[in-house]
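Supplementary material to the annual report.
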Amino acid sequence: MKVPMTKLTVVSESLLREELLTLMRDAGATGFTVTTADGEGSRGVRATEWEGPNIRIETILSAELAEQILTQVAERYFDDYAVIAWLTEITVWRGKKFGA
Amino acid sequence: MKVPMTKLTVVSESLLREELLTLMRDAGATGFTVTTADGEGSRGVRATEWEGPNIRIETILSAELAEQILTQVAERYFDDYAVIAWLTEITVWRGKKFGA
Amino acid sequence: MKVPMTKLTVVSESLLREELLTLMRDAGATGFTVTTADGEGSRGVRATEWEGPNIRIETILSAELAEQILTQVAERYFDDYAVIAWLTEITVWRGKKFGA
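Predicted assembly:
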């Protein structure tokens, strides 16, 4: 059965990897895909931070939990770190991986 | 001309790469983007499998074909493998790459 | 505050990396995430080009700017290069990174 879910994507400096994963786990996220990415400049982002290797964390959540974690990430990191985050509406095949 | 299409994303253990690509090709998918990813735990996924390098396969399809392949992937792999799959509605510029 | 934005994704041969980033910057894009990807065949794409390492560029834009850049990329590259591009509607947390 296909059901709508929300994907949270966070692109950040590598040094925040464990901190971000811990924040997400503490909020209730249970599975992550992590890839390596490079960033290239952004208005309001310090260039020296953004130029190194970045990580991209993705996790699939309920809409409510995704918005909650997005807000936490924004409030905790956006002012001081090169962090970008967004939500995408997706469709998953409901299996045991995403709860009942 | 911009038209709506569906992107199917499958994140899986690397060992399923060829099998998944074959399943998708047989179903009618014709182009793929494959990236390397790391997974980090998921409810209902065996940790030992999920911790190694994963692959992320993306392919752009009609909504019907995307749902059909998602269903096949779910039915064939979700119970026994660390496989996650989802659909995203996207907009492409209609060119020869996506048929008439 | 959460607001809708559009993500433009371009997957291309590596050799077009700087050219594509320049096109996007000139059009008004200001931040990019670049990852390495592999492609695997596509109807209408020359196999020899598509088999090498590819890059995947993502940038978050207003809907208008995203469509404008997508059109430019399509018109300039789709006939002669192994370039795929698509738009995804996303939700971002409005911060200084995406303007007022």
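Helices of chain B lie at 17-27, 47-50, 63-77.
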